[in-house]
Fold this protein.
Amino acid sequence: MSLVSKWGPRVAQSLLGLVFLVFGLNFFLHFLPQPPHPKEAAPFIEGLMSSGFVFPLIKVIEVTAGLALLTNRFVPLALTLLAPIIITITGFHFLLAPAYAVPIILLVLELYLAWSYRAAFAPMLRARVSPAASAEGAPAGQAATAR
């Protein structure tokens, strides 16, 4: 096992978790200054803020997923929850507030970790699956037969 395959996912997980934990907490605790957004981004930001619940919900997800990544718990779930947030961050910075380094780094870390945990995502990517068996005794993964 190479050094990269051994430590790469853990380092990427820690970096991604730290970013989302810090910036998620910053929304609630205001310990980092917030730079002004370009005027093109104002309607988007104002829309999210005026809803009253979208930004707090996103930030709670960021903090929770960041903690999950840092503690190595529920990592595939955390990556799944962060994926649409990272896509939105990337779109925001590519289209409304040009800054490319941070969104590209976040996207690369997310994709690398998704690839590293691809076995956990494989069941979600099957075209056809059966629902879980009922509690009547059929093993999970096997369809219960009609009686």
